Amino acid sequence: LTLRGRSDLDQLPGYVAAADPLLLLVALGVYYLSFPLRGYRWSILLRGSGERVTVRDATEILFVSWLVNCVVPAKLGDIYRAYLLRMNQLVSLGRTLGTVFIERIFDLFAIAILGLAAGFWSFRTGFDPYVQFVLVIGVVVVIALAVGMVLMRSFGRRVIGRMPVPQRIVELYERFEEGVFALPARQLPRLGFITGAVWACESFR
């Protein structure tokens, strides 16, 4: 397996050199188009939580956090994104983390829905048992996310308030929840459209 992996890696430069340069440029452009879209979406979420951040600033910070995500594990770039915004604009760290969290929830919904749609389209003539298992996982993920959001909204503060944690942690959670749920419902269709555009860029790329 190791030798085969090295062999495939050795062939990678040849694959890139043989690719259509125009398609590579278009893919590069489509990929980088997703960043201002993500920045626009994040600025809307921040505005809903009471923080005023321009699309340009949101995009710049998001781009830096993307680089961090490429070199450190566990998506720590998302936490770094909240930290950068906190250091540069003195916004609430808890609310900012809440907006990053809800942004990732939108992405997970989009990935699950796209995965289900692709599975049904690709295997419409008959489902392999393994594919059925993967699709069931996708459905479970969507349901679990929805239930988790409802539980957080209904019982989150009550539960954290009864736990033996410092008051500062309780206040941080309260700001976090404000960031998650501060967005007006009328903004949801716009955010859904932007999320669809972001993942359309990923798919076209």
Q: Would you write up a description of this structure?
A:
With 205 residues, the protein is mainly alpha-helical. The mean pLDDT is 82. The chain has helices spanning 2-18, 21-48, 55-71, 76-89, 93-122, 129-162, 167-181, 188-204. The chain is globular, with a radius of gyration of 20 Å. The protein is built from eight helices and no strands. Helix 2 packs antiparallel against helix 8 (188-204).
Keywords:
single chain, 205 residues, mainly alpha, 84% helix, 0% strand
Write the layout of secondary structure elements.
Layout: H1 2-18, H2 21-48, H3 55-71, H4 76-89, H5 93-122, H6 129-162, H7 167-181, H8 188-204
Helix pairs in contact: 2-3, 2-5, 2-8, 3-4, 4-5, 5-6, 5-7, 5-8, 6-7
Characterize this entry briefly.
With 205 residues, the protein is mostly helical. It has eight helices and no strands. It has helices at residues 2-18, 21-48, 55-71, 76-89, 93-122, 129-162, 167-181, 188-204.
What's the total helix number?
A: 8
Range of helix content? over 70%
Structural class of the secondary elements? mainly alpha
Element-level helix/strand string: HHHHHHHH
Query: β content, as a range?
Result: under 5%
Largest sheet properties: none
Q: Rough shape?
A: globular
Low-confidence stretches: none
Ends: how far apart? 29 Å
SS elements, strand count: 0
Q: What's the pLDDT, averaged over the residues?
A: 82
CA-atom Rg in angstroms: 20 Å
